[in-house]
């Protein structure tokens, strides 16, 4: 047990920082999820709709899967309820008819326009614990970590 303690109790600074990021992220995602849940919505599905919107309203499923960090097989499963609810639809890719694209529908756009302002407000309320300079520093540090690929 003593040997195990060095991996779970006495952490080097970089590991303590890593778990600080993980714990804080989980807490902030929880704030966002609580908001979505209060509206009867699912944050993961909203994220998919947001990614489609960021892509201009149309995206290949494989690109969408990469952006949200799931497999190509899983993205199909995740898209089914969004299409059933009328928030997305699929259409042939204009450049390659063998491929399908996921499109954001007017209903999907309206959902985002109605729901995102409130979500952004609850997230901002938590993030406002940091001042502007601290937020800029945080973003800079996070970007530095993201660039360091192995």
TrEMBL record:
Signal peptide: none
Pfam families, alphabetized: MarR_2
InterPro entries: HTH_MarR-typ, MarR/SlyA-like, WH-like_DNA-bd_sf, WH_DNA-bd_sf
Species classification: Bacteria, Bacillati, Bacillota, Bacilli, Bacillales
Entry keyword DNA-binding: yes
Recorded superkingdom: Bacteria
Limits of the HTH marR-type domain: 1-147
UniProt protein name: MarR family winged helix-turn-helix transcriptional regulator
Keyword terms of this UniProt record: DNA-binding
């Amino acid at each position: 047990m003593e040997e195990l303690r060095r991996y779970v109790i006495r952490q080097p600074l970089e590991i303590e920082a890593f778990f600080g990021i993980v714990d804080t992220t989980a807490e902030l995602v929880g704030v966002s999820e609580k908001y979505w849940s209060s509206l009867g919505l699912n944050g993961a599905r909203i994220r998919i709709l947001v990614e489609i919107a960021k892509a201009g309203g149309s995206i290949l499923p494989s690109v969408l899967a990469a952006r949200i960090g799931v497999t190509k097989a899983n993205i199909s499963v995740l898209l089914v309820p969004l299409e059933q609810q009328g928030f997305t639809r699929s259409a042939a890719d204009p450049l390659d008819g063998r491929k399908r694209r996921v499109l954001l529908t007017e209903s999907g756009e309206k959902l985002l326009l109605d729901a995102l302002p409130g979500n952004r407000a609850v997230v901002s309320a938590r993030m406002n614990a940091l001042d502007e300079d601290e937020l800029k520093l945080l973003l800079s540090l996070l970007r530095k970590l993201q660039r360091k690929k192995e």
